[in-house]
TrEMBL record:
It holds the Pfam family HTH_1. PROSITE patterns: HTH_LYSR. InterPro entries: LysR_HTH_N, LysR_subst-bd, WH-like_DNA-bd_sf, WH_DNA-bd_sf. Belongs to the LysR transcriptional regulatory family. CDD domains: PBP2_LTTR_like_6 (cd08423). PANTHER family: LYSR SUBSTRATE-BINDING (PTHR30346:SF29), TRANSCRIPTIONAL DUAL REGULATOR HCAR-RELATED (PTHR30346). This is DNA-binding transcriptional LysR family regulator. One of its GO terms (molecular function) is DNA-binding transcription factor activity. The keyword Transcription regulation applies. Residues 2-59 form the HTH lysR-type domain. It comes from Nocardia transvalensis. One of its GO terms (cellular component) is protein-DNA complex.
Amino acid sequence: MLDVRRLRLLRELAQRGTIAAVAEALAYTPSAVSQQLAALEREAGVPLLERTGRSVTLTPAALRLAEHAEAILAVLEQASAELATARTELTGTLRIGAFPTAVRTMLSPALVALSREHPRLELLVSELDPVSAPAALRAESLDIALVQEYDYVPAAPETGLDTEPFLEETVYLAAPSPAPLATHRDSPWIASTHGTLCHLMTVRACEAAGFAPRIRHHADDFGTVLALVAAGQGVALVPELGALHIPEGVALVPLPTRRRTRLAYRRGTGAHPAIAAARAALHTACAAIPAAGVSPGGDAR
């Protein structure tokens, strides 16, 4: 009989590529991961790993077994969710991951509703960039999270997760005065930290307009970004959630670019009462968000 915990390690290795990455994600030591995978190889009775120096490659049999592991883990999650529906009260821990603007605008009211309706449910929140959320869900350090993609930064397919539509936003050009994006070829730019989705979106949107942005400042909080624009330090691209409160001296010009946010959770957990309650609370909070404070002409209200 194949050990489920070892199958999970194999699935993670197929996703992450290195034993060191698996160990870091799941709080193991690399030697412990290697030992468990060697034990799985003995259970399977066929070679699963090809070792070249300090690196490993999954054999065709291992890749196929990793696919089965996805299905097995999803069925186990579904079984756990069905058992949870028999309880009369929600208890335990629910780990939620969200990006900063969502924490302020949607997650806070959703947490209030969840705490009021399910007082014995312990809620743990992690603020993180959406690019990190899928791996955290698969590693079971999160139970539900917000993931994103932009028109210029499409999301890669994620195995082992289910997602559902949540929010679609307009992306705005924030500048001292309304003007097309292409006119800011020589302007200084304000962008998020390198490696985040927002940073990559800014770079690719400018490249689509025919230039590479000259990034002067980096800031991940859109309130800070808009304050820098108001101080004459540059221009920036800001999604609608980050543009709900506009400082004086900032104009917003809507662009055809969109940001799409989805709710994500491990496959098989969608019907779990705690996940279902969080989904409902988040959708209710999302529906209550006002539109960005910008008039059709592009001026901040």
